[in-house]
């Protein structure tokens, strides 16, 4: 199945804000490598062969009655302690009758911190 990746406006805004923050703190060279890697990580979601191979659902999915999944992007220097990582939260919609592709909706792009997932997504 073909998967179409669609980013919500909040996800796009968060992605840009993270880039600007990293650019300010780490410089343009690191920020550009980080951003390019994030874009690749998001795009590779479309390469998954099906819903069973997607990363696991978050624990709050059942309470929210939405199947929300996440992927961690570890930054361009994954092994370095100073690498900036983030969570990409998304949901998957299978292809509807007559459609050739399913959709992956990117909900949020949040810098990895110690907050709980429900705090990152907002208590709904």
Give a verbal description of the structure.
- The chain has 124 residues and is α+β, with helices and mostly antiparallel strands.
- It is built from 4 helices and 4 strands; from the N terminus they run βαααβββα.
- It has helices at 9-26, 28-43, 61-64, 117-121; strands at residues 2-7, 68-73, 86-93, 101-111.
- The protein has a 4-stranded mixed beta sheet with strand order 1-4-3-2.
- β3 (86-93) and β4 (101-111) form a beta hairpin.
- α1 runs antiparallel to α2 (28-43).
- The protein is elongated and about 45 Å long.
- It starts with a strand and ends with a helix.
- 21% of the residues are buried.
- Mean pLDDT is 79; it is low at 114-120.
Topology overview:
Blueprint: E1 2-7, H1 9-26, H2 28-43, H3 61-64, E2 68-73, E3 86-93, E4 101-111, H4 117-121
Parallel strand pairs: 1-4
Antiparallel strand pairs: 2-3, 3-4
Helix pairs in contact: 1-2
């Amino acid at each position: 199945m073909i998967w179409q990746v669609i980013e919500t406006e909040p996800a796009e805004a968060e992605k840009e804000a993270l880039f600007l923050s990293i650019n300010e703190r780490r410089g343009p060279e690191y920020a550009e490598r980080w951003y390019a890697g994030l874009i690749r990580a998001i795009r590779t979601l479309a390469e998954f062969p099906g819903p069973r191979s997607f990363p696991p659902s978050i624990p709050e999915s059942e309470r929210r009655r939405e199947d929300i999944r996440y992927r961690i992007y570890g930054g361009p220097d994954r092994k370095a302690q100073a690498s900036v990582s983030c969570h990409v939260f998304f949901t998957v919609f299978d292809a509807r009758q007559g459609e050739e592709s399913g959709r992956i909706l990117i909900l949020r792009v949040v810098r990895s911190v110690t907050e709980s997932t429900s705090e990152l997504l907002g208590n709904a």
